[in-house]
Amino acid sequence: RLGKTRIIAETGAGQHGVATATICAKLGLKCIIYMGSEDMRRQALNVFRIRLLGADVIPATTGSCTLKDAVNDAMRDWVTNVADTHYLVGSAIGCHPFPTMVRDFQCVIGNETKEQMHALTGRLPDAVVACVGGGSNAIGMFHPFIAEASVRLIGAEAAGDGLDTNKHSATMSRGTPGVFHGAKTYLLQDAKGQIIETHSVSAGLDYPGVGPEHSWLNATGRAEYHAVSDVQALEGFRCLTQLEGIIPALESSHAVYQAMLTAKKMSPDQHLVICISGRGDKDVNTVAEVLPKIGPQIGWDLRFEEDPTKIARRERK
C-alpha cells in the first residue's frame, strides 16, 4: 500500500535477517540484509538460510564489521532509496517511531507471559530476566510489566572479556549519554564522543548503544542491568542445554546466567521468568571455536583426544 517493494534490514545474530527474508519470500518483495562481515563469519548458518530464502546478504566491512556497522550501511541505503524502500529495523533502536514499533510488536511475548503466569500460578512473576544488546526482546518482555511495581525487571548485557578490559559491550554499566543512530541513549564512547568498538561472544549483543526506552528504565531505576562475561554466558549455555535439553542462543545465555545468580537470592516460593530470545543452532560453531579458550575456565571440554570410532572398535574386541 505504501509502494515500498524493496525491504532492507540489518542483523547481528542473523535471526532478524531470516525472519525478514521469510516474509519477503512469502509476499514477493525484494529483500536486502546488511550484516557485519565478522557476524557473517560467526553466523554462517543463518547467512545460508537467508540466501536460501532468496534474499541478498551484503557485508558491512567498516569499523568492527559487526551490528553497528550493519545499521550504518542500512541507514545509508534507506535514506538514498526511501521512495521504494522500507527499512525493517531489527532492534528497539534508532529514531522514532522505530523503537516504539519494535517494542509493540515484540510485546506479544511479554503479554503472553503475563497471561500464562496468571493461569499457572495465579499471580505475576517476581522477576523477569532478558538479555540486552539493542534490547528488542527485553523491551518486549519488560513493557507489559513496567506498571507492575512488584516485578523486578533485570537485563543482562555483554561484559565480553571483562569490564576492566576494552573488549565488552556493557553499555549500561560503562556507557555515558549521547546520541546514536537518531536517539538519545547510553553509549560506549570516548571523551571526544567517538564510538568505541565492542566485543561479545554473541553477535546479537555486540552493539555500542541500547534502545532509548531501556536507557529510560535504567535512568529511572525501574529496571536493573547487569554485565555477564563471555565465560559466564558459556556457563549459562551449558546449564540450560544439559539440565533442560534446550540449546539457547548465546545472547539468551547471558540472561540464563544472570537468572541463576538472581534465583540464588530468591525464596523457593518466588517465581522467575527467563526470556529465551533465540535458539542456539546458529551458535554451535562459535561455541566450538571458543571452547578451547573458555572451556578450561568452566571445566568443560568436548574435544576428542582421538578418533572415537577407534575407541569403539577396541571396546568391541
Automatic annotation (TrEMBL):
Q: Which UniProt keywords apply?
A: Lyase
Domain of life of the source = Eukaryota
Give the enzyme class: lyase
- Is Lyase a UniProt keyword of this protein? yes
Q: What EC number(s) is this enzyme filed under?
A: 4.2.1.20
Keyword Lyase annotated: yes
Q: What is this protein called?
A: Tryptophan synthetase
Specify the species: Kickxella alabastrina
| Originating gene | TRP5_1
